[in-house]
Amino acid sequence: MSIQPLRRTLLLPLCFLALAACGADAPADDAPAQPAPSAEAAAAETAAAADEATEQATEAGVTLDDGALAFTRPWTGDLDGMEERRLIRVLTVYGPGRFYLDEGRGAGLVAELVKRFEDHVNDELERGHLRVNTVIIPVARNQLVPALLAGRGDIIAAGLTITPERAEEVDFSIPTSKPLNEILVTGPGAPPIERVEDLSGETVYLRLTSSYAESVRQLNERLEDDGMAPVTIEPMPESLEDDDLIEMVNAGLLPWAIVDEYKVQAWEGVFTDLTPRPDITFREAGRLAWAMRKDSPKLKQSVDAFLRENREGTLIGNVLRNRYIRDFDWAANALGEDDYARFEALEDIFRRYGERYGIEYLMAAAQGYQESRLDQSVRSHAGAVGIMQLLPSTAADPNVGIPDIDNKESNIHAGIKYMDFLRSRYFDDPAISDLDQLLLSLAAYNAGPARVRSLRQTAEAEGYDPNVWFDNVEVIAAREIGRETVQYVTNIYRYYLTYQMVASNVLKRRAAREGAGLQ
């Protein structure tokens, strides 16, 4: 099997964003009308949060404005502080089955568990519309613990093995998995190995922060006690995941790798030149867990209570594990490229009109994806058309002036121009940050500019800042409108930043793969 298709899958996050559904109420002043929100959109249950991933994105070279950075300062604390902030940040790593993009949205085992955990926390704390929200932040695996300790995340959910070394730095939850073994997997041309001691004097290729590296160090202590040469550890880039190493072994680029046994089973039928060696083990009966800072007893208590009902071995835990590990369509995930091609065909259009009107083109692409999955043929029951799901009357209004929105370019042009109109007409005020001008415009796109103007007036009367969306105008919107507009705006912002972060990490991983000989 060619290894090129898997690389295409890793490029998908560069392109796709996801967000809540969009609509608007009756037109106000001279604002063009938009269709009313659909019942489906109003019932959407995806989490909302101001994403802390900006800090990581900035470190990776992704430039964001000062307004965005205001939401991303490192923070440490326990669950009561997270409730006050209305935000729990979950650190994970990007990869098939665990956390990946499915038609532009975050999906996978971690995504589903975190959504269930969000519901658990809000039920536990008896929250109303103003929920405590979760946000998933994908980082390189070697950044999981440092990011947690630095206050850039609150929980690690990434298949982390409990080890004594790690337990000195973090608190682990109760185990999320049944006992599992770390085994050797060999590829074509690997020298014969009969027992683990035959690795004496050989070289293994590992990420230094992995539990496998700890296991090999322990093996080396035994070998040296027996007067045998130790195993040489050749460091591998931290951006590579176990799936990459398995692929390299299958391609003959590495003679072998040490991985959790279930990860080899996941690729059965996809990589056919692998030889699992369950008879050669390094760590036996290891357990996976979530991790938290040591000063988070309330969070740990909540996490443990959640995992008792949702970890592997429970009905829900087994269903999710089977869905994303045993029964996950790994081959389809590795071979899919339609989504990437669809965005690639439109990216220049979004970028061109985003630059013309000063609208962040990834925000615009996120709207287009949510509205239609970037499908120009989509028509709503209310008569909205195409990628940006605009009413023809909205597009034809003099404030937009693009009457023909039946083709992709004019449809995207009209959608971005309409957002620019909302921002310029209602929120072009030096007292409002560039970020909040966009956030308030998104709220107006969803709820109508007259409604947002009323929300801002009420916010000011009640002591909130009418020029700030998050935790200010948003609070009034949650009370007077309900979840939809709150969720709509925060989902756009969350996914926008989240997938920028995914993109930066995938770029690093791509470079590491190419440096390792994977194309």
Set down the secondary structure blueprint.
Layout (H helix, E strand, L loop, with lengths): L3 H8 L27 H4 L10 H7 L6 H4 L9 H7 L1 E6 L7 E3 L2 E3 L1 H17 L7 E6 L5 H6 L5 E7 L2 H4 L3 E2 L7 E7 L16 E4 L4 H15 L6 E4 L6 H9 L5 E5 H6 L8 E12 L1 E5 L4 H14 L4 H12 L3 H6 L2 H20 L3 H12 L19 H5 L11 H19 L7 H14 L1 H13 L7 H12 L2 H33 L4
Helix pairs in contact: 3-22, 6-12, 15-16, 15-18, 16-22, 18-19, 19-20, 19-22, 20-21, 21-22
Enumerate the strands of the largest sheet in spatial order, edge to edge or round the barrel.
Answer: 4-1-5-12-6
Helix content: 40-55%
How many angstroms separate the termini? Answer: 13 Å
**Runs with pLDDT <50, length 5+?**
1-29, 35-71, 330-337
Number of helices: 22
> Could you report the average pLDDT, rounded to the nearest whole number?
77
Structural class: alpha/beta
Strand content: 5-15%
Task: Describe this entry's structure for a reader.
- By secondary structure, the protein is an alpha/beta fold.
- It is 48% helix and 12% strand.
- The chain has 22 helices and twelve strands.
- The strands form four sheets. A five-stranded mixed sheet has the order 4-1-5-12-6. It has a three-stranded antiparallel sheet with strand order 10-7-11. A two-stranded antiparallel ribbon has the order 2-3.
- A hairpin with a 2-residue loop joins strand 2 (100-102) and strand 3 (105-107).
